[in-house]
Amino acid sequence: xxxxxxxxxxxxxxxxxxxxxxxxxxxxxxxxxxxxxxxxxxxxxxxxxxxxxxxxxxxxxxxxxxxxxxxxxxxxxxxxxxxxxxxxxxxxxxxxxxxxxxxxxxxxxxxxxxxxxxxxxxxxxxxxxxxxxxxxxxxxxxxxxxxxxxxxxxxxxxxxxxxxxxxxxxxxxxxxxxxxxxxxxxxxxxxxxxxxxxxxxxxxxxxxxxxxxxxxxxxxxxxxxxxxxxxxxxxxxxxxxxxxxxxxxxxxxxxxxxxxxxxxxxxxxxxxxxxxxxxxxxxxxxxxxxxxxxxxxxxxxxxxxxxxxxxxxxxxxxxxxxxxxxxxxxxxxxxxxxxxxxxxxxxxxxxxxxxxxxxxxxxxxxxxxxxxxxxxxxxxxxxxxxxxxxxxxxxxxxxxxxxxxxxxxxxxxxxxxxxxxxxxxxxxxxxxxxxxxxxxxxxxxxxxxxxxxxxxxxxxxxxxxxxxxxxxxxxxxxxxxxxxxxxxxxxxxxxxxx
Length: 498
Ligand code: MN
What we know:
By secondary structure, this protein is of the alpha+beta class. It is built from 12 helices and 27 strands. It binds manganese (II) ion.
């Protein structure tokens, strides 16, 4: 057996190896399932980085998570490099965009396929919300179905449609398609709020907190799956969790209702054969997950959790001593195609410039030792620092000595920017600045991540910008004061409301 698409050949090995001893299901049958299901599963995997769970010796042998494309992967296998979060280097995730890639993954015993909820290059933009129902001791798939109906009640009230699938293991997942401009901060805040509300309403049935291990006969609504570092088992993926091979399969609400009425979860288990037969009959019940555009309630956009991203900012400062703005969310802009920017000249331990862009309700920030150049091609290193609150846009004054960043801060330039392309999470931003001093295009891109301190470069692109004269260089665009004057005034000004 071999699979060939566009001169991509996959040679299959050890086809007779038994993968599920109890039913005698072989590796060859597993590969055949993936080849046969490819037309249905591929649209759901397209452009999503995946993690494989590999079972080289079948389900009774050892299994392991494979995030990185193995070194022996063929050159045609598509991958996408993502910087590691807390260490140096990057993870080269596999993208399964065609049948050959799928077959190749199956052949290396990648029995389970777990994609992210986002597509590259938008690593911060989930396409849907995922509720993962995880039954504790004494609870089962039917208990999960009960909880899913409680979530459905809330979704109905909000005018949102959700699509359930059995996990193929013991649980159930419910996907709420969005296919709109949202971030994980928003989807996780939403999923968490729903989970906590249901825990309040049904304390005997639902827990919302991973840490509560005592969830006998209860179901954990695992909202934390809505995170850029988490993957969830793919629809139509096989599972290696039970004695027999089962598939993660979409089910209808009607089928869940029937199962609850008859108190039997049996019709909710699908072997690979049953899954393929059902697909031929009913088609891809999960197709709307790819296309249906829905929006989350406004409240979640507003309380979306940049709070989390401002924790570092908060931790570094003593707000009884410094007059810098307190960590507070900015208004989250509807459009992600631009915002305001500020460059602050900061005479601290070393003189440097702070470059900040309004994004996702906070200011993405960099320290630029030599400042932004107006000459095309001149590269300036920019060290990514913690997100700042939006109020920091107009912070000018002094930070007391001994405090973090102690020294003088001038609003050196202020204005708006258009995001011409790229994303912050993708480490690449093409900007058109409309400042009082700087106007024109700049390219800001990440070159390495070290100890969670990513290094970027800022380069003028397109034509040279108007150079900054000496007088202009030492003037605040906010108050026209010089650095010496700001230091002497020893005040702090910023407007809390805008
Ligand atoms: Mn600074």
